[in-house]
């Protein structure tokens, strides 16, 4: 048995400091973060999911973070969903509101049976008239809902956000920071024996690898690539000066991939994720400028190989963030997984005295299932009828995993349910987000949806629920403050 008193985190940035915050709030260990200014932070993930907001707003931990002060200090903004443009049809968009759930009051066949969205499918209704979607399209803040019916997330400036969290956690005497480069990783048959930093040997009981694609501690000997299922492999990033603050991430499908636009308080953080087998970075820049009607200055050109490592916990080393895996920026799954993976470790495996060997196989299987499910979820976005470019033609012929094929086959004869997703659904993406992409991409059959509601005698109930929800939403919507008014009032 190994007593866990001191945890060493290698790597700063968003992943490193979020991990330090998570461990500080939920364990009694001493935490040391090793990072260097000489190692640049990859600023790809500026959009987040509700899991980060849950960590920031955690009550009963060892520190309290003021969310409003965090957003004001870092220029970050609230995110309530994603607008997808051109994915199914060029010139058409659909909304995916963040985490809006409607409970099945009939409790039949179970309380999680999403008869509300199934009613949308049966009647070929999009989600544009939903309350959160209307807030997105009309730039309104839905604050009266903040604490109960839906999750909220952030658009973040990764540099400022990471530094803010760093400042907060370093106020606690259990967290320390060593600025320097790891010059040597000394290992033995139990894992990492010590790290040499600034000519000093640094030791701990558990090591967390947040070193990104370098994977300084965990290595990548058992890396599994997703490149046979996901064609995009490169991203160029740029900023747009824009005072218009939307409350959603805009994911705009392009000729050879897709472009993100993430509104911060003083700028939009943007990027084009593409396949460099279909377009060069120079031509991708031209495509961006033609699309948005302005010149851009490319900040970074990032090549990546989407995939994961098999053993994310090996001996006394646990990896998270980009060191564990990366699919692509779509749906903000990178920061999401950073939080989820550490949550899962702390909540279901961690004790202050551990036998590493007995738990690692099960934990690694859990995380592998999560990554594969996220990969399938991202692959779902590319099941499109578009055939207007070679990229979209090739996407339609790209491999689909057996697990995703099985889901799609099941959904030909019944609507999606919670049982269709990965083991115990630890990562909390389905069922709502899957439904919303399935609706937007017009994949589910309206006749199957209608027949199912009728067979369960839920059609009238679903119609009444829809009508009442629309009426209630319209009443609430009248009194909401605009995005611009909110941020101006907080300055």
List keywords for this structure.
seven-stranded mixed β-sheet; alpha+beta; about 500 residues; six-stranded mixed β-sheet; about 35% helix; 15 helices; 23 strands
Structure summarized in a few sentences:
This protein is of the alpha+beta class. The chain is built from 15 helices and 23 strands.
Written description of the protein model:
It contains 15 helices and 23 strands. It is α+β, with helices and mostly antiparallel strands and 491 residues long. The strands form six sheets. It has a seven-stranded mixed sheet, sandwiched between helices. It has a six-stranded mixed sheet with strand order 8-3-2-12-21-20. The protein has a three-stranded antiparallel sheet with strand order 9-10-11, with no helix packed on it. α1 runs parallel beside α6, α4 crosses α13 and α8 packs antiparallel against α9. It is globular.
